[in-house]
Amino acid sequence: MTQATTGAPAERTTARRRRTTAPGTGRTRLAVTLLVLTALLAVSATAGLAIGSVRVPPAQVWGIVTHALGADWREPDWSRARETIVVDVRAPRVLLGAVTGAGLAVIGTALQALVRNPLAEPYLLGVSSGASLGAVSVIVFGVTLFGPLSLPAAAFAGALGALLLVYATARTGGRITSSRLVLSGVAIAAVLTALLDLLLLTTDRGNEARAVLAWTLGGLGGTDWGTVWLPATALLLGAGALMAQARNLNLLLAGEEAATTMGLDVARFRARLFVLLSLVTGVLVAAAGPIGFVGLMMPHIVRLFVGGDHRRVLPTAALGGAVFLVWADIAARTVAAPTEIPVGVLTALCGGPFFLWLMRRDARRGTEGGVA
What we know:
Elements: H1 2-50, H2 58-68, H3 80-114, H4 127-141, H5 150-170, E1 176-177, H6 178-202, H7 206-215, H8 225-244, H9 246-252, H10 256-261, H11 266-288, H12 294-306, H13 310-334, H14 343-365, E2 370-371
Antiparallel strand pairs: 1-2
């Protein structure tokens, strides 16, 4: 009895200390993680600009970059060919890789909260397949209704339609299970991919069909500065909107009933974010093709370092996704040189085993039950 009496105050004191020190510790961990990832992104970008069929020393890379930005007025000690390679060939590609990786990671983070499923991500849920079908339809049929924005607009429409279809198919009796959601996504993705293949096989544009078929594997080759501005804008606006809704994403983790009790209109909030995520996904797919598993892996990895609060997970996942896809593209260019491997193939080789591990982990934890 005495031990219980004396132990209780000690336990309360320990709990009180944890509550007071945890926020500060969490902020420090977040700051350190963001600082490390930012440094890794700078190193990754330098490597992406330096590595290739023509190797450029890192110091010379930064000299070329600062000279191109007008921050270095010294006489260049590099050839014009190297400057063209770094500024006009590799820099847009590296930037698009960072933007696409960050965007896919952010989209995956938000999707996992919206549908309350740790396996959710654009590729697995068929969203990327819908965006691909919309984009390819514009290319094959030569639709130019919205001018240069016709491709992203069609990709957005396809992504939104696929996401709504998967969600409606998986939701039965007001509940969704992990297996039903993933199976619905896989089935609808298979149908959309079959339609895309049929479209390519029956088109009269043979050379164009081969180029589009390579694009459907996901890749950053052939990127120029005109390709980058729209995905970068979509990422900035989308990530900013999601950061503003981070508290509501946190509420959804507790379930729809709890979120409604806290004053969140779940149906309206979910509908708005479905449109936003489909828009960003469509723009990214239109620029880089369907690249899978980045949105699955990054949120789970960064939660190990910063916890589950979306105010911390979203920026951390964005940086992690950018670093990952830049290095995946470097590997795609160099592993089988002079042949270039589609970057989507490499992300699938990394993400497939991760997906299987995640399923086994959740099965052991018994998280296969319904999701409201």
